[in-house]
Every structure is written in structure tokens, then in C-alpha cells.
Write a structure and sequence with these properties.
The protein is α/β, with parallel strands linked by helices. It has 19 helices and 22 strands. The protein has a six-stranded mixed β-sheet with strand order 6-7-8-3-9-10, with helices on both faces. α3 packs across α4 and α16 packs parallel to α17.
Length: 523
């Protein structure tokens, strides 16, 4: 750490407008050199926009960015990198078909149009080893585990001797062990003089790794940077949510969402659930062909009872999408069977399965769950077209009225049933899908990443909807990469690894055991 009094990175009076939407409003904040800083806030708080302004990707309408007291040209990635700032995006940017060495070469400033492959591989092997990244230079990026891909992304970012490293949601796709490894790697970088800024959602992670925390809300600076040892999860939760919103969320949900309910890695059982008297879903040794969305399922056996939430954990890409596709009659089943409420539906189409009570909240709400260009009432009314074997005459006026009544009951904020679904916020779009999928005739709900990308308030709403469906006797299969979510509302948890069930766990859940099953370390 230098003796300079100027912050490593300072943003002065930053304002960013996207049309009529103000993403950042007069944000001024400075980050001390050599520390790990967290930036937190709900969806739409301005966190990612802030990171992109600092990295030169977004040019603000007003304000200034300074590195150690010196102005950096705005909206210029090259100049920001030259000044020592690097941003690692949540979505990995290295070409998946490249080898590790090729990807590193590609990411190096300017690249090299002519190179000797052997020398290139040796150069990047030394660089990766120096950063503690264990990977061969000839391995393809697409074949690497998620956390290794991320480690290579970070190594690429440090090629230019970056002094300030910004990571946007770096823990979103990592297993518990992967998160621990990432934090350890960041601590080593910090010891080597790198100033690190993390965009994070989970307060437990903030308190585990960061020296300071800064809170944004509605595009404005609410608090910080403040030392993490001078605050706690409850105080940060109140700052993130805001007093006007916090009252709408139960204390149980708030504690669970911020990870403040337990100091240990054990979650105590919740109140007794409805007794499992009937297997709503019975998957019997299902094997599929290799699927477009992930690995084949290999003799997967799984039951979901009436009034039961079964969570599915696992590092992304281990068959979770194939499982949902098999249940939706989209993946090719080679052997085994699927029963819904005692009826074999292995070879029946989705419409028949829906008639038998199956409902699906898909992984990607914008591409799989909604037609963004279609009206709200058309998206909601799609449920009528998915039931039964034949199309029926529809009454648009009646459907619009029913849609308005239903969406209003679900708390969807909208101006007209004719407005396009793409005009809704992420939370309201998810509520639209919930309103369509969680109806009185639902017996089995497949909820795939139902809260991904949602803020604290919208997340608590989804959790409440799933719990209420369980109380009515629905069976729920909850696929989530968020272990806090799974631990909070699941009655049982199964872990998927390479297309197989690699462990089943009952309450109380233990993070270490489930983390081991997710990575296969116990094999």
C-alpha cells in the first residue's frame, strides 16, 4: 500500500441516464488502495453500471473517474486499462473454442499476430502458475470447470499488471469450495498490492471477504465505504432494502436472504411439513441421450411428495437443465420412467403433463418463459393453449379481464394488459410467470432458478409463493444454484453431478457435506 492520500479509485459526482431511467445519480465514492471492497445493492441499484463506468465501458453523463488522484478519460476502455483498471464480467468473455494459451494471448493487450506456439504456451503457463491457477495451456476453455474458467478470466485481467481489479458477481456460478478458493486467491492478490472491488449480492460473502462495503440503492450512494467490522448483516440488510421496502418482508425471509440467521454451517429444521402420503413425481432410473442443454441423465431416481419442496443443488452444467427438459418432454429418454400422481407420462407430450398438473417456471424467464414482444394478456393466456389436445375458441376480452384480475392479485406492476412483456422489470416478469404457472390445478411445480437476478423483495415474494403452494399440497422441485435459498425452503436436497444424483440430504443441512457432493470430492 502506498503512502499517497489519494484513493486508488475515486468516482466524483457520477450520473448515468439510459433514456428516462437514471441508473446512477451524483455518486461520489473513493476506494482505499490495497483493500478488498464490496459494492452491494438490490437489482437496479446501479452496481454493474458503476463498475462499467469505472472500467471505461459506459460514459457517464457527468462526473469524473480518478486513479490515484489523476483523471482517467471517460468511456474509453483502452485508457482505463492503461491506467490499471480491469473488469471481469459475470458472463465469461474468453472464446470457448480457444486453448487456454490462445485465450490468454487473445486477451493480452494488442495480442500478437505472429507467435511461436511453444513460446506462447510456456509464457502463459508461467503467468498462470504464478497466480496459482492449475491448468494446462492446451486445454480448451469450454472443457474447463466453471471455477477454473473464472480463474483464467482473472489471470487474463492481470496480464496488464492491473492495480485495480473489479469483479461483477464472481460467486454466482461457483460451488462453496469454489467460492472459498476464489476468496483465497483474492487475498493473495491483495497481499501483492492489488485493490479489489467486488459486486456481490450475498451479505454473508461480503462479511467473509471484504474490508469495506458500499451500498447503492436506486442509483444513489446510501452508505460507504464503511469497514465491514463496523457493521453487521442486519444493518446492511436495512441499508440495501430501505425502510420503505423492508417492512414488506418478514424477519425470517430477511435473515435468510442476508445469511444472518445462522453463524454456523448448519440450518435447523423448520416447522413440520405436510406428511408425504403420495408421490406427486416419481422418476425411476431415467437415462437420456446427450442433450443440447447439458450432459445426459444417467439412471436418475427421484421422488417428490405431496406438500414437499425438494431442492436440487449442483454446480451449473451437471444435468439440471436436462432434468427439467426430460420432465417437459424435451429431452430424449432412453430408459426409465416418469410418473405424475401415479400416471406414467414418460412418452406423453407436455400438454398432457400439464393437464395432469405439471407447471414449469423455466430457467430463463425472458427467452423460455415469456414472449417479450407479446402483450401481457397473451403471455398469461398461453396457459390455455398448453392444456388439452385441441385448440379452443378464445375470448380476448374475457382473457384480458381475467389476466388483469390475476396479475393484480399477484402484485404485478403494469399499466395495461396490452403492454409488451418486455416492458416489465425482472421481478414483475417473474411474477407474471408465477401467476400463470401456480394455479389451483397445479400438482407439481418445477421451479428452475426462480429468483436468479431478482432483488431481495422480489426473492422473498417468490419464496412465499412457493411455500403457499406447498401448503396447498403441491409438490415442488426447486433447482437453484443459491444454497442459501435451498437451505431455507427445501425439505430435502439432492445434488446433481455429471448427470447423476450424487447425494440426498435431509434437515439439518450441512454446507460441507453438500459442497463435497457438488464437487465430487468425496468419491
Amino acid at each position: 500500500m502506498t503512502s499517497s492520500s489519494a484513493p486508488a479509485l475515486a468516482c466524483r459526482d457520477i450520473t448515468v441516464n439510459f433514456g428516462d431511467v437514471t441508473a446512477l445519480s451524483d455518486v461520489s465514492v473513493g476506494f482505499t488502495e490495497g483493500l478488498i471492497h464490496a459494492v452491494v445493492g438490490q437489482n437496479g441499484a446501479g452496481k454493474t453500471t458503476f463498475a462499467r463506468v469505472a472500467a471505461g465501458i459506459v460514459r457517464p453523463d457527468s462526473g469524473a473517474v480518478e486513479i490515484e488522484g489523476q483523471n482517467v478519460p471517460l468511456g474509453n476502455v483502452g485508457r482505463a486499462r492503461a491506467a490499471g483498471i480491469e473488469l471481469v464480467h459475470q458472463s465469461f468473455a474468453l472464446p470457448p473454442s480457444f486453448t487456454v494459451a490462445e485465450a490468454m494471448e487473445y486477451g493480452a493487450e494488442g495480442g500478437r499476430s505472429i507467435y511461436a506456439r511453444g513460446a506462447m504456451e510456456r509464457r502463459w503457463t508461467r503467468h498462470l502458475e504464478m497466480l496459482g491457477v492449475q491448468v494446462g495451456p492446451r486445454e480448451r476453455v469450454r472443457d474447463l470447470p466453471v471455477e477454473t474458467q473464472q480463474a483464467v478470466e482473472i489471470a487474463r485481467a492481470l496480464v496488464t499488471d492491473a492495480r485495480i481489479l473489479i469483479l461483477d458477481e464472481p460467486t454466482a456460478v461457483l460451488s462453496p469450495a469454489g467460492i472459498d478458493n476464489l476468496f483465497a486467491r483474492l487475498k493473495v492478490m491483495q497481499e501483492n498490492g492489488v485493490t479489489i472491488i467486488l459486486i456481490l449480492h450475498k451479505i454473508r460473502e461480503v462479511l467473509a471477504v471484504a474490508d469495506t462495503v458500499t451500498v447503492l440503492r436506486g442509483g444513489k450512494l446510501v452508505e460507504g465505504p464503511i469497514a465491514t467490522d463496523a457493521t453487521d448483516a442486519a444493518q446492511l440488510s436495512a441499508s440495501i432494502i430501505g425502510t420503505n421496502v423492508a417492512g414488506d418482508i418478514s424477519e425470517t425471509d430477511r435473515e435468510a436472504l442476508v445469511g444472518a440467521a445462522e453463524e454456523s454451517d448448519t440450518v435447523e429444521p423448520i416447522a413440520a411439513e405436510t406428511e408425504d402420503t403420495l408421490a406427486i413425481l416419481d422418476i425411476r432410473n431415467v437415462t437420456t441421450r446427450q442433450d443440447a442443454e447439458g450432459p445426459a441423465l444417467d439412471k436418475v431416481a427421484l421422488r417428490v411428495g405431496r406438500g414437499e419442496i425438494v431442492g436440487v443443488a449442483g454446480v451449473e452444467g451437471n444435468g439440471q437443465r436436462t432434468l427439467v427438459r426430460a420432465l417437459s418432454h424435451l429431452a430424449d429418454i432412453v430408459s426409465g420412467s416418469i410418473e405424475l400422481s401415479g400416471t406414467d407420462v414418460t412418452r406423453t407430450p407436455l400438454s398432457n403433463r400439464r393437464a395432469n398438473g405439471l407447471r414449469v417456471i423455466p430457467f430463463e424467464r425472458n427467452s423460455e418463459g415469456l414472449s417479450l414482444s407479446s402483450a401481457l394478456w397473451e403471455n398469461w393466456a398461453a396457459r390455455t393453449l398448453l392444456l388439452g389436445g385441441s385448440l379452443k375458441l378464445i375470448n380476448p376480452a374475457q382473457l384480458k379481464k381475467t389476466c388483469v384480475d390475476t396479475l393484480s392479485r399477484w402484485g404485478v406492476r403494469f399499466s395495461s394488459p396490452n403492454q409488451p412483456a418486455g416492458s416489465l422489470s425482472g421481478g414483475n416478469a417473474q411474477k407474471l410467470i408465477l401467476a400463470r404457472e401456480i394455479d389451483d390445478d397445479a400438482t407439481l411445480i418445477i421451479a428452475a432458478q426462480p429468483t436468479r437476478g431478482l432483488d431481495v423483495g422480489a426473492t422473498a415474494f417468490v419464496w412465499r409463493a412457493l411455500r403457499e403452494a406447498r401448503a396447498r399440497g403441491c409438490g415442488i422441485l426447486l433447482i437453484s444454484s443459491d444454497l442459501d435459498e435451498l437451505f431455507d425452503i427445501s425439505d430435502r436436497i439432492v445434488v446433481m453431478l455429471s448427470g447423476r444424483i450424487n447425494g440426498e440430504f435431509s434437515r439439518p443441512f450441512h454446507l460441507a457435506d453438500i459442497g463435497t457432493a457438488m464437487t465430487g470430492a468425496g468419491r
